[in-house]
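tool_log.txt
---
The assistant was asked to compare two proteins side by side. It first ran the structure predictor on the initial sequence, then on the second. Raw inputs and outputs are pasted verbatim so the downstream comparison step can read them without reformatting.
(1)
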Amino acid sequence: MRTFANLAEKELLALAISLEEEHGRIYADYADGLKDSYPASAKVFTEMAAEENEHRRTLIELYRQKFGEHIPLIRRQDVRGFLAHEPIWMVRPLGLDKVRAQAEVIEEETRRFYERALARTSDAGIRKLLGDLAAEREHTDLARRLGEEHLSPGTRQSEEETRRRVFVLQVVQPGLAGLMDGSVSTLAPLFAAAFATHSTWQTFLVGMAASVGAGISMGFAEALSDDGSLTGRGHPWLRGAITGGMTTLGGVGHTLPYLIADFRTATALAIAVVLVELWVIAWIRSRYMDTKFLRAAFEVVVGGLIVFAAGVLIGSA
């Protein structure tokens, strides 16, 4: 691997050509990945790709004038000091915030490269071109600059609404389903064990087993329900992990109080935790699922009370 300080002028130009070509292809991939959900932002990255291609052509023309037809292959991974960019352009669906953030990192890194290359060249023509390219990247937030031309307030609002729908579909819905299942379905076995044994440790073990088992079951059920390609619900295993994790969390929350040795104190605290869990579920449904809070609270509390009562009755039999 070469060091930046050891690169000759022709190698610096060759590396610049390679960088511009790579960035142009990355931005084109961004545009392709965003065109369905965020068409205005996709247009931003299409123009960014066109700019990178124009830079590449200008650099190639200067190289041919100075050093001839053969351009040596020097890539970013062949030179120490460059960042390793996560290949998010290969992921579908693309996240708009991550794409814009990575584009700005790429622009800032390229600006620093041109500034360092400028300091190591003496040829007037090369210095002029490198200086122009460095100056152009003083506005490292190129995505935002181009966005001012294409993203009207209405378009921005539309893309924000799309992003919110994607977040609800891929994160909130599976998480809420898991939290509801974990918080409600584990009430019956937990309180049945509590009132049957009056042993806080035995109740804790039953609650943990019910929570972990429900989490594994719900996680696999969600992951295997669909692959997300048609529904837009995201990667199945990520969705399953969210659902399984929230299911386990929902059950563990009211199980932990039974680590307290005193049965009455532990049960009172567990009931209080259940009420908090049900309130959180109602708030999430109200916040993200367009359900009025009182209606959401009524539905969740009624369901929780029925399961709680079933557990107490079975445990007291």
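(2)
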Amino acid sequence: MSTQESAPERPSSAQGASAVTAGSVRGRWWKVAAVIGATVLLMASSCSWQLGTPIPEGVPPPAGDPVPKIDTHATGRPADQLREWAAERAPALGMPVEALEAYAYAARVAEVENPDCHLEWTTLAGIGQVESHNGTYRGAVIAPNGDVKPQIRGVRLDGTNGNLEIIDSEGVSHEGDAPYARAMGPMQFIPDTWKLYGVDANNDDIVSPDNFDDAALSAAGYLCWRGKDLSTPRGWMNALRAYNLSDQYARTVRDWATAYANGHPL
């Protein structure tokens, strides 16, 4: 992610402040007014898409196959309801079934809780591919409950090699290389952003950036807050530039999302 996050060291369990069940996701996910002051301090004002800046063609990318309607407040792991839908599509897309379930569930929750956002699973999948190869970076595997092991960590954000300098004083994203932060998990959240947006999407009472369900739903909340309406070119670009302040990043996500919408990897 980043102005907010840095991608893993690639050619391309930390917990949040409190656990939230999927049944109470709406109370936590959209209660951003309470944290907007902290968010403004965290994000540079330049993160929003500036008026007059050319918007690339092909954004927003296509929606892809529609996600079935499910009970977004189901007990257990709600994303399991999408197993059949995901299993039919994941092999052709070249991604794990559990990753596609997580993206689709997050998009469905976004549609239910914030219908004005218009976030599609293809956008989440494009981000997840760029950030962590859909949770498989360096041989990582996604467990049936969504946990990604071994944990995926980005480069040390120490201000060198074009990276921001971001301090992780609590040491939730690293071991032995304090005080610098590393982006965490399949969607590459930095610790401070995770504290604001992290949610429990799989009902295990743990808010973890290393759980794909939690990470995808948290990313959905962040994108919707930053982009407002992702069905518009400007809204989609606002969301993507907040996630990573790079035009090339947005174009790459667009290209992967478009390929996924057409039923294949890029």
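---
observation on (2): DSSP finds nine helices and two strands in the chain. Confidence is low (pLDDT under 50) at residues 2-7, 9-24, 30-49.
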